[in-house]
Amino acid sequence: MSEAKLAMNKKDPGRALCVAFGAIVVLSCLAGLFVAYRFFRGTGAAAAIFVLAMLALFVGAEFAERDRVLRKAGRDVRFVARFLCKDLAVLLALAFVLEFLTLVGSPASSALSPHAWKLKRVVIFWGISFIAFGGISYFFGDDRKRWGRRLSLFVWQLRALALPALVALAFAVVFGLAAAAFARISLPVAFLFFFALAFSVGAIVAYVRGSELSLEAAFLAVLLSSGLFMAAAIPGFHAGLDEQIHYRHSVELSYIVDSEHTLADRVYEMSSKGEGRIINLAPNDSMQWSADDIATYSGGLDANDSFDTVTVEPGYGPELLVINAFGYVPSACGLWLGRLLHLPFSAVIVLGRFFNLLFYGIICAIAIWVTPIKKRTLALVSLLPLSIFTASFYSYDPWLTSLMFLATAMVLRARSERAVLSTRFKVALLLVFLLGLAPKAVYFPLMGLVFLIPRECFRSTRDRVRFILCASAVVAFMAASFALPMLVTNGGSVTDTRGGSDVNASGQVAFILQDVPRYLGIFGNYVVTDYVEPVSLGSGLLWYGYYQGMSRLSIGLFAACAILVSMLFVVLTDYAGEEDRGVSIGARLWTLFCVVITVFLIVTALYVSFNPVGATGRIEGVQRRYLLPVMGCLLALVLSTRIRLPFSQRGMDAFALSVCTAFAFLCSWLLIAVNVLA
């Protein structure tokens, strides 16, 4: 045996110290978690201990991957101990800095007051820093320079957007003034709309002309420009569905503990009460918001965002200790930054929305970059008008949708390359699924996609079995988090009072279990004749929440059919050539099975919580935006073909981007600019 192998077989005191340290942290966290839930009933310390428990998953791997530590550890165990303490101290200092900045942005607390500092928040910031540091080091630590170069190249290619931005600026000035004068649309809104439109078109032209601009960069430019208009059109108006609920949870998460709410927050949270229609919300009791209305409403919100109107809600928000809080992280970061910069309340609202849009765009762009095939399909689904609209407001749906697209892209990469997967890739895939499913565990059947990874992607049968067992554990955890609350309470804990006074979730569960064939008939009839009926589906993809949809306009039927035909054309002709090995019949059927089971669970969950017992016909509460997370795998795998048209790949990519851009801005103009802001 060689000296190198002998050295590998020797006990490594540095690695042993890391493992021991991680074990101590895990045991301490488990013990503390038990004590917290036993004596404090899940509040306060429990959240901090839970974060530390998550940290323990990364500690051992993070330090084990650092070669210089391991080389030195073979001679000096104390070096590793000092190194660990140094990192702990640096991250603790970072936690105190984050607490200081939080208090700087707080409307009711002062960073100079010792009583304002929250030890619980510092501990959680410390845990978050550990998780981020450990995760980055584990996944990127060995090759930081290469990843840095990739990021630099991506940023460098964005210089191709400089000319489109200048042209868009001039275009926006001319047409924005004309729209404000003749259509009586607010000048800032008109300027933003025409700038976003011109910049999107310019980005597509720059891409198709063969510049260094990649598809993911062009995609990101189109998405952010079109989404920003939606997010900023009326800052104080809830256009996104249930946005007031998601906004409140985002505020609570941005403070972590002892959240502060001004009068502006409370007004904003209540602004979509009632029937949730625009006609009930406009200041002048009409469908239109004039420039003066917007200025008056936004100015009133800004004026009410003051110290003397603050109320503090002690402890953690009710949604902070549940797993779906992950979906509020991007918008919470935007709110936190907006308060730190002391922006007006209306601008803080837009910044929170934009961070949600930015996270969605970055993850989808990474998905497009990761997959070697079906890039055009993923770009198309990510840029559907409904996708952009959902990502432009407060919601955890963009978190779920984008991470499901990324998971699909990683599966496509494994199937295309047929190379042995590294441990990091497998861990990353399971982590993407786990984080993506956190806000809505009902989508857990989509994890069945991991079974599409070929056998040759694993080192051995034992390696494949271990991976499947880990994936099954994640599925079991998500399935339990979805099903147990319903089964333990016989459906009682999921009753949604917005469904009406005659909704009885426990009675609905009993009805389904007593007559399963009848419910399957109700489900099948609704899905086939309503939910995925082509015209209804096309109209749903053009739905803008409380701004309503294209179906009520004269071109609604044409638009619904046009977007479906365009989608099918792009998806069916998305063939990359040699690297696209195609999809077997078995893989198509398995993917379709996972999608159908997911849709069944979604519809059933809403049927139980939102509909009277035994209701037939239309199932209330089910929305077509719930189909977005499954559309990536459905279109990329089930509808995969080998049809290749005699056109350049860039030309076909540009067509897909152009179709989405045209529909998105058509909806924005007809549903927002003309109908609401004129």
From TrEMBL:
Pfam families: DUF2142. Keywords: Membrane, Transmembrane, Transmembrane helix. The chain crosses the membrane at residues 16-39, 45-64, 84-103, 123-140, 161-183, 189-208, 215-234, 345-370, 377-396, 427-453, 465-488, 553-577, 589-610, 626-643, 655-677. This is Uncharacterized membrane protein. It comes from Parafannyhessea umbonata. InterPro entries: DUF2142_membrane.
